[in-house]
Amino acid sequence: MIQIYCMAHQDRSDRVRWLLEELQVPYQDHFLNRTNGELKTESYLKLNPMGRVPTVVDGDTAIFESGGICLYLADKYQSKGLAPSLDSLERAEYLQWMVFSVASLECVVARMFTFQDKTQSQIESIKLEVEAQCKIMKVALNKVLEKQPYLLKSGFSAADIMMAAVIPGAADYLMEPGSAIEKYMKNLMARPAAVKAQVF
Ligand SMILES: N[C@@H](CCC(=O)N[C@@H](CS)C(=O)NCC(=O)O)C(=O)O
Predict the structure, then answer these.
(1) Is 15 a pocket residue for ligand 1 (Cβ < 6 Å)?
(2) pLDDT, tens only, 68-83
(3) Confidence of residue 114 (pLDDT cuts 50, 70, 90)
(4) Distance between CA atoms of residues 85 and 32, nearest Å
(5) Is the distance from the beta carbon of residue 138 to the nearest atom of ligand 1 less than 6 Å?
(6) Vertex 69, ends 33 and 169: CA angle to 5°?
(7) Which of 72, 133, 169, 196 has its CA 20 to 30 A from that of 103?
(8) What's the rounded mean pLDDT across residues 71-96?
(9) Would you say the CB of residue 66 lies under 6 angstroms from ligand 1?
(10) CATH label, 90-191, candidates 1.20.1050.10, 1.10.10.60, 3.40.50.10950, 1.20.1290.10
(11) How far apart are the first and last CA of the chain?
């Protein structure tokens, strides 16, 4: 069975758990306590040298980086239809959105969670930068989602899980009332697998 190491349901293990629920693949959660140093024990660092979560153990293999884990799992269970096949043209768009969700969007959104030790004026300036970056990404995402309900024309995929898990972190800047992104999020948040995985 797939083993998930996490701190809580709502950390970055959320997307892995949601994907496994969609794929109907059984998994087991292991909750680690950061305050007690459980992310930095010798045995955990052997699984994830970054001392972070999530980590997934599948058989003898330990994998870290939530985006890499989801790419791996969606391919491993490709017959379930959440990742376009290697020879499909849509594969390119799929990879683009999978990587965009973490490398472009989450990088910016995560700045909203690093306010400790910052002065009020530093916080205001971070917020302005995040807002400006989100504005560009919001236009790109709305353009796609105004045409179709999911990132890929063929339908729901693991790329939607990655994207929807990140968007709420900067909801004020990304989910304009009445926008395609807002509609997209409402639809995804209601998916039984997302509800079961307690993502939102
Ligand atoms: N890019 C990594 C980020 C991993 C990460 O920073 N995880 C956070 C929780 S969501 C963590 O482990 N924080 C613990 C710490 O920083 O001590 C991923 O997507 O897996």
Answers:
(1) no
(2) 999 999 999 999 999 9
(3) confident
(4) 35
(5) no
(6) 65
(7) 196
(8) 97
(9) yes
(10) 1.20.1050.10
(11) 25
